[in-house]
Amino acid sequence: MPNFQLMRRKFQTAGMTHAIFLSLPITLFAVFYVYPIVSTFNLSLHSWDGFSPTPKYVGLRNYVVLLNQSRFYHAVLNNISWLVFLLLGPTSLGLLLAALLDRGMKGESVFRVVFFLPFTIPAVAVAAIWRWMYEPTSGLLTTILQSVGLGGLAQNWLGDPSIVNFALMGSMLWWTTGFAFLVFFAGLRNIPVEYIEAARIEGATPWQVFWKVSFPLLWPSTIVVLGMAAVDAMRLFDIVWAMTNGGPAYASEVLATQMYDTAFGRFEMGRASAISVYLLVIAGLIIMPYIHQLAKRVQDAEAE
Fold first, then answer.
1. 44-303 carries CATH number 3.10.580.10
2. Which residues touch 115 (CB under 8 Å, ≥6 apart)?
3. How far apart are CA 103 and CA 126, in angstroms?
4. pLDDT (tens digit, 9 = 90+) per residue, 3-35?
5. 184: number of Cβ within 10 Å
6. Where exactly are the structural domains of the chain?
7. How far apart are CA 190 and CA 225, in angstroms?
């Protein structure tokens, strides 16, 4: 009986210890994650200019108004376009650069720094660099085209609604490819050399070695890169706002920039909160099933 009571006290003490250690992360999660979401949803049901002492309850009107605005749908389509681009562009280029460098090129350490360096630059600095490059009269891109006799191809890169998104994607490709390259390069270096040598002994070409051996073993790296790309596409804000403010004529606007403009440009805090709720729902519908499927593929690959 005394032994039973002693064991019971030990279990109670251990349970209290676990509860104490868990209380901090749970509290932080509730304060910095759960509460902002609940507070934002509550604000989306009100009309508030950010200064009035009492927000006015309007129910779901903010959501209905957004669904009747073509500007909102255009921002959603831009986010989807960015999602497709970020999943394919930087991912493919980063994989290509990693595969080329993994073959033992001369100056490998130099190329690694060159490929990854843009990713270390802050978004605002990247925006400043590319605004200068895209300057329509004396920018670097226009100057290069004129120097090779192709001045007629020069455009108002950030001022033409039909090409502004492609210009932004070009700067984003330069900026984010380094991350995909680093992850894929590390993944390639972690592949056991025995697998590669066995494939070569069997007569496999370099392309077959990569496609049949290396690439399937890169699924963990691929999940990291694609998962981050999907998240970046949904939360995209800084480089778009710093380069175009969502213009011209809202052509490059995404949901995050529209939310910022609605909140701090038009002082419609309730409607801006409704945009953020829509963004959260869209991101969840797009990203979570995608990550779930990728994770399932990795589990199946590891099981084999």
1. no
2. 97, 101, 177, 178, 181, 182
3. 30
4. 556 556 655 666 677 777 788 888 888 888 899
5. 26
6. 44-303
7. 16
